[in-house]
Amino acid sequence: MKKSDFTILVADDDPDYLFQTVFSLEKAGYKTMAVESQSEAEAVISKFKPSLAIFDLMMESDDSGFILCYKIKKKYPDVPVILATAVSRETGMSFSLDSGKDKSWIRADKYLEKGIRPEQLDQEVMKLLKL
Amino acid sequence: MAVLKVLVVDDEPGIRSGVARILRDFHVTYPFMDEDYTFEILEAPTGEDGITVIERDKPDVVLLDNKLPGIQGVEVLEYIRERKYDIVVAMITSYASLDVAIRATRDGATDFIPKPFTPQELKSSIENITKQLYLKRITHKLNQDGKKVRYQFLSVLSHELKAPLNALEGYLRMMQEKQAGDRIDDYATHIDRSLQRIQGMRNLIMDLLDFTKIRLERKEEKIQEVNLAEIASGAIVTVQPYAIQMDVSINLEVRTDVVIMADPGDMEIVFNNLISNAVKYNKFGGKADITIDSSDTDAIIIFSDTGIGITKTDSENLFSEFVRIKNEKTRNISGSGLGLSIVKKVVELYHGTIKVESTPDVGTTFTIRLPKKTINIT
Predict the structure, then answer these.
(1) List of residues 6+ apart from B281 with CB closer than 8 A
(2) Confidence of residue B233 (pLDDT cuts 50, 70, 90)
């Protein structure tokens, strides 16, 4: 399969980050769907199965990303999910995907710090889509 | 493998042993759960015994008959609810008293199981209850973690500071690598957005300075007589260019001239923030009214707008740090999320109060009361 066969759902309430992420994914060759909120993302998920999803952590609420991970995995267990946020681990966010305990309730396949380069993002997406 | 404790409160021994038999080998799986759930059955023939078991064994689920020899099922339900125990209650009831069961669901029962039931009916009820319980506990965990985040001022601050930097970095890299074309005009929106993000970050830094000022600065030498109408007029002048852009008219009504003892800088923070909010969250062509009045003891300042309003739920967190109400109506409005928390801190420093009343799509009114008598605020 080629990259253009995959549609990536991107949810982020920062319009610039959303624009840049979508821009770089499309440049890499993927199809994208961009939404600006948890509620829009939920509406999309209810009708459509994306090939992969990238969620921002803090949108309408502090844990929007967690909730979206949870909901999408419930509906489509095989869709890979990337959780992206600008909150760094060093500043006291008390989770990562390194510990088994967190992994058991954060339903993401990959946790990424924002500011990631387009090539890196493409790499991670390819890995998760097994390309 | 996780075990849920299910307490059956029913005066009919047949029901109790039946439930035990049906659920003995039953297990619930859910693609999403990490492990299967199985069930350990506890029994109680009366409501009183049920409460003893609840206190001793802390069951996860209670299947509750309403018609019991002593206290009634609904009283047991009330007992559980009053203590806010993390227990899911399902009423077992005959068809004749379904209305009781339905009323009970309003009082906090999760489900009801009509009697007589087949093993399959019981199993599917238990399956539902198990899923609900699991979801409830996960949500609780999420909320707890959400709370933790909210109180970590520094981590949220770093998020707010890094977001614009990430946006800028992204746009600059796009330009550096000429991703959108070779001409500078191909990047007009990118540049525009970058400038807006810089402005946003500057505002955040200004708010942060206000924020630390009211927290750290000693005040005595700055306290003087402050005429609130003068402060209000000054703030209106500051906000006016923005109001013209938004076509919002700002009106000041001074019912009584009020002079209080305060640091004028503090009062400017209050008026600037609330008047600029009244413009920012308004509709095109709307109004912002500021009224200054006084009672025997207090100065009363009312900021009233014809803007987008706030729902009751949203208004509960309105004065917390970095809280920004995010919805369709606010998505194009930028703010640091610090303004109202700063206002509240200032008002409290002067032993005053701030209240908000709002109707979505109609408008919002903030009412501030500041004691007039000289007070010690250091």
Answers:
(1) B305, B307, B308, B330, B333, B364
(2) very high
Q: Count CB atoms within 10 A of the CB of residue B357.
A: 13
Q: How far apart are CA B279 and CA B339, in angstroms?
A: 14
Q: What's the longest Cα–Cα distance across chain A? A: 41
Which residues of chain A make contact with B34, given a CB cutoff of 8 A?
104
Whole-number Å distance between alpha carbons of B75 and B92:
14
Q: Measured between CA atoms, how close is A5 to chain B, in angstroms?
A: 23
Does A104 touch chain B if contact means CB atoms closer than 8 Å? Answer: yes
Residues in chain B with CB shorter than 8 Å from the CB of A86 are: 158-159, 162-163, 166
pLDDT of residue B150: 43
Last residue of a domain, one of B168, B200, B216: B216
Name beta bridge partners: A84. A56, A112
Angle at B232 between CA B265 and CA B263, to 5 degrees: 20
Q: What is the pLDDT of residues A22-51, one digit of tens each?
A: 999 999 999 999 999 898 999 999 999 999
Is A63 within 8 Å of B145 when comparing Cβ atoms? yes
How many whole angstroms separate alpha carbon B145 and alpha carbon A123?
A: 30
In this predicted structure, the answer to whether residue B142 has a pLDDT above a threshold of 70 is no
Domain count, chain B: 3
Of B150, B166, B193, the CB nearest to A62: B150
Q: Give the pLDDT of residue B219.
A: 64
In a domain, A92, yes or no: yes
What type of residue is B294?
Answer: S
Residue found under tokens 């970590």: B152
> What ipTM does the predicted assembly reach?
0.74
Residue B193 touches chain A, beta carbons under 8 Å: yes
pLDDT tens across B164-176, in order?
Answer: 888 898 899 999 9
Model pTM score: 0.55
Chain A residue with Cα closest to B157: A87
Contact residues on chain B for A67, CB-CB shorter than 8 A: 142
Cβ-based contacts of A59 with chain B (< 8 Å): 326
CA distance A63 to B207: 25
**Cross-chain Cβ contact B327/A16 below 8 Å:** no
Which of helix, strand or coil describes residue A45? helix
Mean pLDDT of the region B215-241: 84
Number of H helices, E strands in chain B: 11, 13
Record the tokens describing residue A128, joined without a space. Answer: 């998760």
Query: pLDDT tens across A88-97, in order?
Result: 543 344 444 5
Host domain of residue B205: 152-216
Q: Are residues B344 and B238 in the same domain?
A: yes
Same domain for B270 and B141 = no
